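Action item from last week, closing it out:
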Amino acid sequence: MKTIPIIRHGLAALTLGLATAATAEPATFEIDEDHFSVGFMVEHVGYADTLGQFLEAEGSFVYDESANELENGEVIVQANSIFTGHERRDDHVRGDDFLDAGNHETIRFEATDWQPADDDSHHGTLAGELTLLGKTRPVSLDVTINKAAEYPFGHGKYTLGISARTTIKRSEWGMTYGVDGNLVGDEVKLIFEFEAIRQ
């Protein structure tokens, strides 16, 4: 049986498209520890925000880029690695008034849902569970996928560049030191900037 050329070409394109969809699979991405910044901002007595970061963190996630679907993800931050540029303040924040790092060594975020923005597949909302001071509560982050491409040097592997932001109330995790009188702000802005390498 003969087929009209335009139909034949259409069937070939459809077959190719189905084959591509069938072979698309979720991939594991490891966050590059050399390009992973976890920062925060918190108000100090109403005068200005104190900026700080955690120097040790790791994470990974399973993501299907073609379907823009996230299967799972986790970030673990070492509480003791906090740095604000002031040694005495850092020791205070590591203590039981704030992070209680001696009893709670890690801060953990587990992703539970990814919802892309309707008009932009590179932007969306990431929902998850944040465990801090032994207490787990839901949080959502505003996420932007900045770039997805083969790395131009070094490891040369396919890499995602991602920015994420959220604001939490630390008192909801039981961290109430300084909240009364607004000596230290209750709201903490969290900032994540990282590169994730496809495995």
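Closing note: The beta strands are 27-44, 48-54, 57-64, 69-78, 82-83, 106-117, 120-132, 135-150, 158-169, 184-198.
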